[in-house]
Amino acid sequence: MTDSSGHSIPETVAAEIVLESNPFNVERSTIRFHDGYEAERTVVRHPGAVALVVIDDQQRWLLVSQYRYPTGHDLLEIPAGTRETGEEPSTTAAREIREETGYAAASLTHLGATWMAPGFCDEYIHYYLATNLTKDPLPQDHDEYISPPIRLTIDELETAIRSGEINDAKTITALTLFRLHHHNP
Questions:
Q1: What is the assigned CATH class of domain 49-182?
Q2: Rounded mean pLDDT of 132-145?
Q3: For 2-13, b where at least 16 C-beta lie within 10 A, e where not — what string?
Q4: Considering the chain, what percentage of its residues have pLDDT values greater than 90?
Q5: How far is Cα 78 from Cα 147, in angstroms, rounded to an integer?
Q6: Could you tell me if residue 48 is left (phi over 0), alpha (psi between -120 and 50 degrees) or otherwise beta?
Q7: Residue 159 has pLDDT above 80, yes or no
Q8: Nearest 10 degrees: CA dihedral of 100, 106, 112, 118?
Q9: How far apart are alpha carbons 175 and 157 in whole angstroms?
Q10: Radius of gyration of the chain (CA)
Q11: For the segment 165-183, what is each residue's pLDDT rounded down to a tens digit?
């Protein structure tokens, strides 16, 4: 079997879930390459996520500060959330903006999507631009402690990225996708 560029795709010989967790599982697989060589791969199987560029009527980005256990730090980042199994990304986006910012968006525009850590994880994030906001909060998830939205102009956002105050990959990626979508220099 080959992919769209003609490269041989390894065959999965065996696969087992070694850890079942919420929202993801860890799978250990044995794969066989076209020359017969076999290798083991461990993959985090993730249901996917959304990330939101939320812009208010004054053209400021709404960011949240959230403690991220693996980093040991609060991260300043765009709102984001994990998709429920089988859930459309736009449905997740509409829910997550309300949970994390307290606003609903009359307009959700898909900006693109990216693999976040394809060396060990199949998480695929869909990015949306959320505009025309109205106050319409949903309760936050019980295991999240997210700050009220912090509003930054795009210049302030870029300064925070340059200084390292913002070092979250999805936020930096979202800026790139936003710029491409809006054809800004």
A1: alpha beta
A2: 79
A3: eeeeeeeebeee
A4: 80
A5: 12
A6: left
A7: yes
A8: 20
A9: 9
A10: 19
A11: 999 999 999 999 999 998 6
Domain boundaries, the chain: 11-45, 49-182
Distance between CA 28 and CA 24 in Å, rounded? 13
Strands across the sheet containing 25-32: 11-20, 25-32, 38-45
Tokens of 136: 């319409």
Helix axes 154-163, 169-182, angle to 10 degrees: 140
The reply to whether omega before 10 is within 30° of 0 (cis) is: no
Instruction: In whole angstroms, give the CA distance from residue 40 to residue 181.
Output: 39
Scan for tokens 């079997």, then name that residue. 1
Q: Which amino acid is at 181?
A: H
Under DSSP, is residue 21 helix (H, G, I), strand (E, B) or coil? coil
3-state secondary structure 32-93: ECCCCCEEEEEEEECCCEEEEEEECCCCCEEEEEEEECCCCEEEEECCEEECCCCCCHHHHH
For residue 20, what are its two tokens?
A: 């079942």
124: nearest Cα among 89, 93, 75, 96: 89
* 26: phi then psi, degrees, rounded to nearest 5: -115, 125
- From CA 56, how far away is CA 112, in angstroms rounded? 20
The residue type of 49 is: A
**Residue indicated by tokens 């993959």:** 43
Nearest Cα to Cα of residue 99 among 74, 76, 82: 82
What predicted TM-score, i.e. pTM, was given to this entire model? 0.90
